[in-house]
Amino acid sequence: MAARALWAGRRRVQRLLASSAAFQSRAWLRPFSTATQRTAGEDCSSEDPPDGLGPSLAERALKLKAVKLEKEVQDLTVRYQRAVADGENIRRRTQRCVEDAKIFGIQSFCKDLVEVADILEKTTECISEETEPGDQKLTLEKIFRGLALLEAKLKSVFAKHGLEKMTPIGDKYDPHEHELICHVPAGVGVQPGTVALVRQDGYKLHGRTIRLAQVEVAVESQRRL
């Protein structure tokens, strides 16, 4: 126990000696550090420019910056005015094109229909009150040829402009393409739920139905017991 207490006492003495030596060394170096700081501060202050030059340089820089910004504002203003004018011109041209499209959009279709009207006019000229009885057969032949030519021309015009006639006989009933008129009993070769007869043809324009086909749909016949 005594040896342990002696060892602890020696440790305390060593710690006190070490702390006192460190304190003395710091106190001895403090005057030199203060002098060094003062010398450095005096040197830095001696290199600073005079106070009279600072504001003048700052004012010049601000004036140059203001002139530059003013030029940029003027340039942006001119660009904005040009963009507004160009946008207005584009809007007017677009509006004019839309109006022309509404008026002359069917110009090509009408031009083709004029040829159909010519054929129909020539066909009707064959029928007149002055036709002699012996010429009736010849007149009917001319009318038939004229009507056949008229039908062929109409089909050609429709195909050219994307107008397609639907032939739904045998197809499954579709309410988006067919208008149901009535139901008929399913016969031989006719499946229930399919179109058995077309009352009026339907038409599509570029794949879009513009007139429904009036149809009769086949159904299973009821068996009598």
TrEMBL record:
The keyword Transmembrane helix appears for this protein: no
Location of the protein in the cell: Mitochondrion matrix
Domain of life the protein comes from: Eukaryota
Coiled-coil ranges per UniProt: 59-86
InterPro entries: GrpE, GrpE_CC, GrpE_head
PROSITE patterns: GRPE (PS01071)
Keywords attached to this entry: Chaperone, Coiled coil, Mitochondrion
PANTHER family for the chain: GRPE PROTEIN (PTHR21237), GRPE PROTEIN HOMOLOG 2, MITOCHONDRIAL (PTHR21237:SF10)
Family: Belongs to the GrpE family.
Protein task: Essential component of the PAM complex, a complex required for the translocation of transit peptide-containing proteins from the inner membrane into the mitochondrial matrix in an ATP-dependent manner.
UniProt-recorded name of the protein: GrpE protein homolog
Organism: Equus przewalskii (Przewalski's horse)
